[in-house]
Amino acid sequence: xxxxxxxxxxxxxxIGFFTAPPRKREADPPAAETVTLKDGTVLKGLILDSSSGPxxxxxxxxxxxxxxxxxxxxxxxxxxxxxxxxxxxxxxxxGRLKAWRAERRDGPGEDRKxxxxxxxxxxxxxxxxxxPDSPLFVAVIDRRDVRTAERRTADQTRLxxxxxxxxxxxxxxMKTSELKGTLEARGVVTDARxxxxxxxxxxxxxxxxxxxMIRRAATEVKYDEGNRFIRQGPMIIxxxxxxxxxxxxxxxxxxxxxxxDVLKSLLGGGDGVDPLVTTLKxxxxxxxxxxxxxxxxxxxxxxxxxxxxxxxxRSPDGPWVPVLTxxxxxxxxxxxxxxxxDLAADPTVKQTFDLxxxxxxxxxxxxxxNRALRVGVATRAALGQSRNAFNEELERIALPVGTxxxxxxxxxxxxxPGDKPAAKEGEAANRAVPKAQNDN
Length: 440
Description:
- It contains eleven helices and eleven strands.
- The chain is of the alpha+beta class.
- The chain has a domain at 222-393.
- A hairpin with a 4-residue loop joins strand 1 (33-37) and strand 2.
- Helix 2 (72-103) crosses helix 3, helix 4 packs across helix 5 and helix 9 crosses helix 11.
């Protein structure tokens, strides 16, 4: 099964969509987004996705308790339509979680947080299957039934998500400044760039196998270890955490076989197999479905550095496929002197220079060393650009590890009624679940 590239992220961009009648822009509008239907129904919440064309859909997340009050007839009919599909989505998710858990091979001493969470999800979903009650309702609206839509900025929609997560009463009716002040009064840093994921407030939905594998892979690369690598030319090496010692330094173990494979490849004596293929096969043998590969490309004259961070996903039929790529770039000449000095003091960099000098090659020429440090600063900056953009997308699609689906039984705020059904309205809701993206 092939993965298809689409744009990732919430909010999505309306393409070729409708426009509201011209009117004066409010100085301090509500932070929530609004969709007004042709029958007069008003949905206040967040637009998760939209598509154009004869079969276009608009997908809106609203608080279940609020829409039950503001549009009781409309919501009652929609809630009834949900009941037939919720259990199917839960059974699908439980089956996939069980298959995921059966594949995993936790190594000795490995943090089993993710495996324990999967076990908890299986048990919790089984307990709440007969009590579907997600705090948020996902409405899938035919484009032809929509009169107008009012979008907000990413900063405004982030405020709404934070308010939903905290259970603030009626944030959809608050002006942006009022909602921001309410959040700050609770100690929330409103200008933080965290994604404020509402995934745990949304109802379970049925989704294609390839999209589920992307969710699974994103969760693994976020929480597991040993699935991040750096590639430069024929070399594939583990992506070390900050301050982590190089293999062979301070008594750290060395993977001799991997080292010999790299050496043979550099000398042209390899077996012709891409080392990334071997690396990913090793992950598959451990039951893993995701990997992150960071590639460093340098111009021959070292005038330009480019870094690409890519997530690879093991597709349902076996092959590994790149599904998300973010890039960053930089020039050594633009590197500040102070940054180069700071990099020279980094323990890992110092280990590298010490290792080179310990080989009996003498002291490194100061000019060459300074040039290498500037290249390092440019690489670090490009790496930061690439990974920051990548991690932002990763947060959007990874499953919310650390939470239990049983929390969906609780309403967002104290005033919310105990509506029973949880949401899934047709396959169009799957657009809120990203497939894949390449950002070249």
